[in-house]
Amino acid sequence: MSDEKLTPRNVDFSEWYNQIVLRAELADYAPVRGCMVVRPYGWALWENIQQALDKRFKETGHVNAAFPLFIPMSFLEKEKEHVEGFSPELAVVTIGGGEKLEEPLVVRPTSETIIGAMYSKWIQSYRDLPVLINQWGNVVRWELRTRLFLRTLEFYWQEGHTAHATEQEAREETMRMLNVYADFAINEAAVPVIPGVKSATEKFAGASMSTTIEAMMQDTRALQSGTSHFLGQNFAKAFNIQFLDENNTLQFCWTTSWGLSTRFIGAIIMTHGDDQGLILPPRLAPIQAVIVPIFKSDLESAPVMEAVTRVQAELKAAGIRLKVDDRTEVTPGFKFNDWEMRGVPLRIEIGPKDVEKSSVALARRDRPGREGKSFVPQAGLAATVADMLTDIQKSLLERATAFRDSHIFDPKDYAELTEVVQNGWALSYWCESTECEAKVKEDTKATTRCIPLDQEEGHGKCIVCGKDAKHKVYFAKAY
Amino acid sequence: MSDEKLTPRNVDFSEWYNQIVLRAELADYAPVRGCMVVRPYGWALWENIQQALDKRFKETGHVNAAFPLFIPMSFLEKEKEHVEGFSPELAVVTIGGGEKLEEPLVVRPTSETIIGAMYSKWIQSYRDLPVLINQWGNVVRWELRTRLFLRTLEFYWQEGHTAHATEQEAREETMRMLNVYADFAINEAAVPVIPGVKSATEKFAGASMSTTIEAMMQDTRALQSGTSHFLGQNFAKAFNIQFLDENNTLQFCWTTSWGLSTRFIGAIIMTHGDDQGLILPPRLAPIQAVIVPIFKSDLESAPVMEAVTRVQAELKAAGIRLKVDDRTEVTPGFKFNDWEMRGVPLRIEIGPKDVEKSSVALARRDRPGREGKSFVPQAGLAATVADMLTDIQKSLLERATAFRDSHIFDPKDYAELTEVVQNGWALSYWCESTECEAKVKEDTKATTRCIPLDQEEGHGKCIVCGKDAKHKVYFAKAY
Question: From A66, which residue of chain B is nearest by alpha-carbon distance?
Answer without folding.
Answer: B38
